[in-house]
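ok so for the tutorial part 2 we go from a plain amino acid sequence to predicted structure tokens. step 1 is just haveing the sequence, like this:
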Amino acid sequence: MEHVPVLLKEAIDLLDVKKDGTYVDLTLGRGGHSCAILSRLDKGRLFAFDVDPTAIYESRPRLESVGGNFEIIEANFAKFDSELLKRGVTSVDGILADLGVSSPDFDDEKRGFSYSKDGPLDMRMDPSLPVSARDVVNRYDERRLSDIIYRYGEDPDARRIARAIVAAREEKEIATTLELAEIIKEAKSPKERAKKGHPAKQAFQAIRIEVNHELDVLEAMLGEIPGMLAPKGRAVVITFHSLEDRLVKRAFRSLTRAKQGNRNDPSSLKSDEKEPEFIDLTPHPLVAGEEERKENRRSLSSKLRAIERKGD
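step 2 — the prediction. this is what the tokens look like for a chain of 312 residues:
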């Protein structure tokens, strides 16, 4: 299945691409956002990051058909500032991150992301990672599994699911996605099973986040954005679940709100107050419009937030 970038127009419009600017796509995927940025560049440059060799292989010819002023960097975006510094880039005009898993990866049963197609339990975005979903499911103890499913999947049945996984693997190792999905489904309470959506969705999300250290990586990346944005530079981040959005919202809010003194010492507030260096471009996150939501169901949970560094 072809990957359709979510909130493409909104993201590119907010980046406000300058023809001679330097831009970074932290999540290359199949190149949808990168191609849109590249098409607006003249003397500018694009740096695109990904850890998936298949995504890089498939996106390179698409980018080449648009222009040649790009470089693909095979590295985790948590290291994007150091990777750019290696290339002599000390600041950029725009940063884009689309945190969703590409449709081709979800739809490729061999990658192990899908709870509706049978494949090996994997879920690694970077195939070189040492721990796969199979390791998590078959090696973690019950308490650790329960904590992960509750924290990263916000699943109220986390304890029941963890207990069921441990019981099932005592019979034989859990090896495939549909095996795991069925165990989760059977463990869910009748109330939760009756809800709309696949009963294994939250637990699969939790295991995927654990395998790829997604929230830790996201926090590291968000911490690097302020130091890399040039004056008038913009950062745009698209999230797909509440845990991601919460981190982005908190990071952007800390950059766009005035720094205040100690509230327990009223005399310090005025003297210590500092004007923020960044402007919030999305006081309320942007969401997909009705037409996009109908055409691309993966846009249903998406939220876009953006900031701009103040200019001179």
